[in-house]
Amino acid sequence: MAESHPKLAFVAADTPQAKAALAALRKRYAHVPPGKADIVVALGGDGFVLQTLHAHIDRGVPVFGMHRGSVGFLMNSFGIVGLHTRLKNTQRVTLHPLRMTAWRKSGRKEVALAINEVSLLRQMRQAAKIRILIDGVVRMDELIADGVLLSTPAGSTAYNLSAHGPIVPMGAELLALTPITAFRPRRWRGALLPSVAKVGFEVLEPEKRPVSATADHTEIRDVVRVEVAEDRTKRLTLLFDPEHNFEERVLKEQFAP
Q1: CA distances from 122 to 128, 186, 203, 208 (A)
Q2: How far is Cα 101 from Cα 117, in angstroms, rounded to an integer?
Q3: Active site includes 14?
Q4: Global pTM?
Q5: Catalytic one of 14, 38, 46, 216
Q6: Which tens digits make up the pLDDT trace of 87-145?
Q7: SS3 of 9, please?
Q8: What CATH number matches the domain at 98-230, 2.60.200.30, 3.30.420.40, 3.40.50.980, 2.40.70.10?
Q9: Contact (CB, 8 A) for 19 and 98
């Protein structure tokens, strides 16, 4: 009896390199639409893997990324031969996204999910003024900065790292709270929070110093208050080749020159 394989779907970023890889894989392997797949193979870069995870966030189908883009921290190497064997031997990383609830100056409430991070950024030339609360307790009465972000472990090597935030291993059950170009308090470098923490941001002087809030690729402008908490009802799965597993990449990044 022939060995049964999981149903695969192939999706690609809108680049010539990714499209060529898509055509080659679809020619070689049986495939189904993404909505019917057991595994989605995403061809592109880290941004496209995030798009793919967001597109299937309600179903939680595992995603196996193959590098056909400009950035590939979340990606596996590209290869056409032996894909079923690779997928059988992959290691799984489970993610829970952040749920951002934002209130705009108009009073309208909007909700978005973030796999990497939630960031608050100044909209104009003047620095933002933001009050930070953790589980309802004011921990910083006034942060003056270009902004502030809250990152998941998966996102800690992205924008968070560029803002000089810490790299967070996947199993640490932590979130990274990182200021973006802080002016005052000048020496504050952020904090590591338990993943169960509920983080609140209050925008001070919103008329004079407007702020936008972004959950991955979803931006909400002119916010006055933002609340962020991990959404444990959503379960996302990334697949990695054993020799390129996510934990090893996080460890290597912390010792990169």
Answers
A1: 5, 17, 10, 11
A2: 13
A3: no
A4: 0.86
A5: 46
A6: 999 988 888 999 999 999 999 999 999 999 999 999 999 999 999 999 999 999 999 99
A7: strand
A8: 2.60.200.30
A9: no
